[in-house]
DNA sequence: CCCTGATTCGC
DNA sequence: GCGAATCAGG
C-alpha cells in the first residue's frame, strides 16, 4: 500500500484529531501502526507531547471528588440505555450500559462489596481480554470497569460472566 | 501483558 | 521513502 495523497490527508486529519497510531492504521488499512508513525515523522507532523503514553484523549483529569458517604438509594435515572463507544488500538469497544433502576441497584451497591479484585480500568484501557463489567454509576467520575482478565475473548471475567448471563427468571424480583 | 509513540537502519 | 524491529514508557 502506498501513500496516496488521499491516504496522507486522512493520516494528517486523524493524527491531528489525536487518534493513536494503531487506530489510524486500522482505519487506513493495509498498514501497521509503525508505518503510520514512520510516516508521521517523515511528514514532520507534530508528535505527541510526552512520549510513551496514553493518547491525549484521556488527558481530561477528573476534578478530585471527596468521597461521599455510601450512596443512599438515589435512582433518579429511569431505565436508560446509553451506548458508549471507544477504540483501543485496533479494537473497537462498544458498550451498551443499561441503567436499570432495579438490577443496577442490586448488583452495584454504593460500595464495591460485590466486585472481587477490580483493576479499576478506564474505558480507554479495555482490550479484547479485559472484563468489561461496568462498576459504579456511569454518570459519576468514579465509574470504571472491572478489567480483570477474561478467558478467551469473553467480555467478562469468570465472576461477572455468571452475573451477566443469569436467566431473567432468576433475577426477577429482589432475588438477590 | 496490554498499550503508547520514538528511533534506527536495512531495504 | 518505507516500515519492521527495537526501544522506552504507562
If you had to describe this structure to a student in words, what would you say it looks like?
With 176 residues, the protein is an alpha+beta fold. The chain has 3 domains: 5-43; 56-104, no CATH class; 123-175, no CATH class. It is built from 6 helices and 4 strands; from the N terminus they run αααββαββαα. It has helices at residues 5-16, 21-28, 33-42, 103-107, 158-164, 168-171, and strands at 80-88, 91-99, 134-135, 144-145. The strands form 2 sheets. The protein has a two-stranded antiparallel sheet with strand order 1-2. It has a two-stranded antiparallel ribbon with strand order 3-4. The longest helix is centred in the N-terminal third of the chain and has 12 residues, at 5-16. Mean pLDDT is 67; it is low at 51-77 and 107-115. The structure holds a DNA duplex (11 and 10 nucleotides).
Summarize the structure.
InterPro entries: GcrA. The protein is 26% helix and 12% strand. It is built from six helices and four strands.
Amino acid at each position: 500500500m502506498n501513500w496516496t495523497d488521499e491516504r496522507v490527508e486522512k493520516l494528517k486529519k486523524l493524527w491531528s484529531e489525536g487518534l493513536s497510531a494503531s487506530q489510524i492504521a486500522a482505519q487506513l488499512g493495509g498498514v501497521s501502526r509503525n508505518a503510520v508513525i514512520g510516516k508521521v515523522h517523515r511528514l514532520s507532523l507534530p508528535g505527541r507531547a510526552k512520549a510513551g503514553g496514553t493518547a491525549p484523549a484521556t488527558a481530561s483529569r477528573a476534578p478530585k471528588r471527596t468521597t461521599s458517604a455510601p450512596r443512599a438509594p438515589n435512582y433518579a435515572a429511569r431505565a436508560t440505555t446509553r451506548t458508549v463507544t471507544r477504540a483501543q488500538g485496533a479494537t473497537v469497544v462498544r458498550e451498551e450500559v443499561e441503567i436499570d433502576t432495579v438490577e443496577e441497584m442490586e448488583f452495584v451497591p454504593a460500595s464495591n462489596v460485590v466486585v472481587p479484585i477490580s483493576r479499576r480500568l478506564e474505558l480507554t484501557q479495555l482490550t479484547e481480554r479485559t472484563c468489561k463489567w461496568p462498576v459504579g454509576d456511569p454518570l459519576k467520575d468514579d465509574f470504571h470497569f472491572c478489567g480483570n482478565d477474561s478467558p478467551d475473548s469473553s467480555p467478562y471475567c469468570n465472576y461477572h460472566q455468571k452475573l451477566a448471563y443469569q436467566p431473567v427468571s432468576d433475577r426477577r424480583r429482589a432475588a438477590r
